[in-house]
Amino acid sequence: MNVRFFALFAGVFCITLAVITQGVLPFVEPSSRTTRVTSVVRTDFGQLKWTVSEATDYTEQQRRGRNIYLREGCWYCHSQFVRPVTGEIRRWGPVSEAGEYAYDVPHLLGTRRIGPDLTRVGLKYSDEWHLAHFYNPRMLVPDSIMAPYRGLFHEPDAAVRIVDDGTGNRTLERTEVTQGLFDFDSQQAIQLTPNAYGLLFVPLKARERKPIILTPNDEYTGETVSIAAETESVAALVSYVQKLGMNRGKWRDLFEPQSLEVMDATMPRSEEWIAYGKEVYERRCIGCHGAKGDGNGPAATFMFNQRPRDFTSAVFKFRLTKEPLPTDGDMLRTITRGIRGTAMPPWYELPLNDRLAVIQYIKYELAVDRSDPASPYAFFVEEPPGPPLYIGRPPAPSQTMLDRGKEVWQVAKCWECHGQGGKGDGEKAAGLKDDLGFATVPADLTSGQFKSGPAVEDIFRTITTGLSGTPMPSYRDSLPDEDRWALSYFVVALSAYKDPLSLQPLSIKKEARAALNDLELVADKPERAYVPDPSVPASGPPAPPGEEQAPAGG
Predict the structure, then answer these.
(1) Does 545 score more than 50 pLDDT?
(2) Is 101 in a helix, a strand, or coil?
(3) How far apart are CA 40 and CA 52, in angstroms?
(4) Which residues pair with 163 in a beta bridge?
């Protein structure tokens, strides 16, 4: 026997062991086939509670995406397992449970962990972020070692000309390629914006629409574009990634590391901190927000639903001040939490000093009007933020308050944009634009993906201040505090007992719903999750896709 024999024996042994543990044991070990998990649900009164529920299988599209994930070797570098140690829990989320892997054969637990663990990645990023990331990871993370997966996109060889469509708009030249990507005769249009380098992302939803090339702020001034079109394969891969961790429900809304709440925190200007903030910005932010901070980074073309923030105009949506500019505390909260449902991820993993430094860079270097080079206007110097508004403790929720909130919803005409059911399909929804001239879509409030935060206090803050730069106004002067609190509770209740990924009503027992609605029930941790009585039959299957669920109090 020699070294080669031992190496061969060790290789065969390891392969056999892997087949047994990954392929055989999952079929014979009962605990690997349980579908029981603990998950977070939002109650009718806006509370977030842990409860015992059942994991769901992959959809056909998600399963196809999982096969692509395996085929492309993603599992070589990315693990899918949160171990019960403090570092992992605070970085990734709740400890993994056996029920989460009921439909995984083989298991993709992994051990190398060269890339981030993906167990809890579902809905951490938007679909658009993932599309940009798969096309070129270094557009978003310059120091990433992940390979681009441009082969999953359709990229025509020849550039396509931008032409006038005869109605005052710009569109793409009709060619054999573009006619396969768009319906030029459709009555519905889709607005697309190339990045500064002439790359134009084309989503699948464009197939039934005519293209409008929208560059209201000269985001691109060239005459031709290169196309990167979404395919069914990359859409399936994104769908699979978004499923990961979502059997645990709305757990992220209770995730303490990104639940930063700060009223005010202001640092004196420091040139050293500004210089360091520039380094942080170029490592973490430049891909979307651009080198100039104008929201036109190389990945911005993929964000066709909502453009990245243009810092140069000093218009910030999320604040707790009467004046338009936010405090350092407001910006720190936004960076830490991220903006749910958009390509802006939470950055709680960044050291606090990095977050504070990048705020200095944004305030004093990017939020500057340089239209007159001889006299630049620094907004945060000339118009410093005023004192923060005070938000008191929310009143206790009740059915009476939800009923009042429903009345305020009608009086304030929230339905004109958000629709009667809160799905963002109101009669004024189509055609809304932000201050920069881009289309803006009212939030689907039934999704529970609240941009400013998941708590009723976050909704109250948004209703109070409005969202600067968008059609969402402030109701601070038009609605008294008690009406704004009632409306806030009504808004959060629109997403009660909804699956955060499919947006379908959860199949939950009537008695369990009543128990979870009990304001005195404490279920703030997985180990203290509410356990429904298994002998009580469920109230019925989830409603079919598209069917309205009556809001609480309705």
Answers:
(1) no
(2) helix
(3) 9
(4) 171
Residue 386: both structure tokens together: 């005023």
pLDDT over threshold 70, residue 14: yes
Residue 91 neighbours by CB distance under 10 Å: 15
Q: Which two tokens stand for residue 335?
A: 């960076």
Instruction: Using DSSP bridges, classify how beta strands 199-202 and 224-229 pair: parallel, antiparallel or unpaired.
Output: parallel
First to last CA, the chain: 79
Is residue 497 within 8 Å of 249, Cβ to Cβ? no
Q: How far apart are CA 131 and CA 129, in angstroms?
A: 5
Token duo for residue 72: 């492309």
pTM: 0.90
Residue 162, φ and ψ in degrees, nearest 5: -95, 130
pLDDT in tens, 455-473: 999 999 999 999 999 999 9
pLDDT given at position 399: 96
CA angle 165, 171, 173 (to 5 degrees): 90
Give the least confident one: 2-16, 113-127, 388-402.
Answer: 2-16
CA atoms of 410 and 116, how far apart (whole Å):
45
Summarize pLDDT for 59-97 with one digit per residue, the tens.
Answer: 999 999 999 999 999 999 999 999 999 999 999 999 999
Give the integer Cα–Cα distance in Å for 459 and 463: 6
Range 139-176 burial, b when 16+ CB lie within 10 A, else e? bbeeeeebeebeebbbebeeebebeeeeeeeebbeeee
Crossing angle between the packed helical segments 328-337 and 352-361, to the nearest 10 degrees: 120
Structural domains in the chain, sorted by start: 53-142+236-253 (1.10.760.10), 150-232 (no CATH), 256-382 (1.10.760.10), 399-494 (1.10.760.10)
Q: Which two tokens stand for residue 466?
A: 């409005």
Give the CA distances from residue 416 to residues 306, 325, 407, 484, 496, in Å, rounded to whole numbers and listed in that order. 20, 28, 14, 18, 22
Query: Residue 553: its pLDDT value, please?
Result: 37
